[in-house]
Amino acid sequence: MTDYGPEQEMEIEALEAILMDDFKEIHSSESGLDTSNRCFQITISPQDDDADDPMDTPVQLALIFSHTEKYPDESPLLNVKSIRGIQTVDLRILKEKLEQEASENLGMAMIYTLVTSAKEWLSEKYGQDASNENIEDEQAAKEDIIVPHGEAVTVDTFLAWRERFEAELALERAKLMPESALTAPKEKKLTGRQWFESGGAKGAAPIKEGSDEEDEEDIDFDDDDFEDDEEDMLEHYLAEKSDSSSHSSRRAN
């Protein structure tokens, strides 16, 4: 009478060494098999064995088996369960496929052969769908990325913008000042602050000491006071600023 025990034990040791964490012994009550013999569960996913994180796969199944008394001269008891994402109808198809292959491999240890077949089936059945989902997710992620538009800000562009901004600000201030303040000789020109503090902002002429208010003339702001071309005023401001910067550089030297 043939003793199948040693051969079955050798196969279990080989499966433990090859499959490592994917192979474990479970209680017969968890197996779904009609047996009280030792039962084992193998976790199978459609990824390659060297994948970084198999828990990220959308589908995963458990192949459960138990050796019969005369295995491998007779087929093992088999069952398949979905761990994640596999439909019942597909499990039924896979189980029938594995049982057929087991009957074709009688006389030799066949569990690892069945594991390989289940992995290939899972990859063909769900691997392409998973790849398509990954492609769609990657495409959606790319569409969510906001691509910046416009010119990148550099030191030179910022300085040019600031100079332009200061010129426009000076122009706005100039619009509030009378033409006499703008055309006066340089040594007599009032700054915006001096003109504002002197009361010019309220439409009143600056008050000189020792003079009577009756002798003063009110400044009448007509539209004619603001007919100067804004671009000319900007150029005038920028030219003065450039001259001022040149004088500062000469003093520093």
TrEMBL record:
CDD domains per record: RWD_GCN2 (cd23823)
Positions of the UniProt region annotated as Disordered: 185-230
Show the SMART domains listed in the entry: RWD
Top-rank taxon of the source lineage equals Eukaryota
- Composition bias type Acidic residues, residue spans: 211-230
Report the InterPro entries cross-referenced here: GIR2-like (IPR040213), RWD_dom (IPR006575), UBQ-conjugating_enzyme/RWD (IPR016135)
Which residues are in the RWD domain?
A: 10-125
Name listed for the protein in its UniProt record: RWD domain-containing protein
Q: Supply the source organism for this entry.
A: Hevea brasiliensis (Para rubber tree)
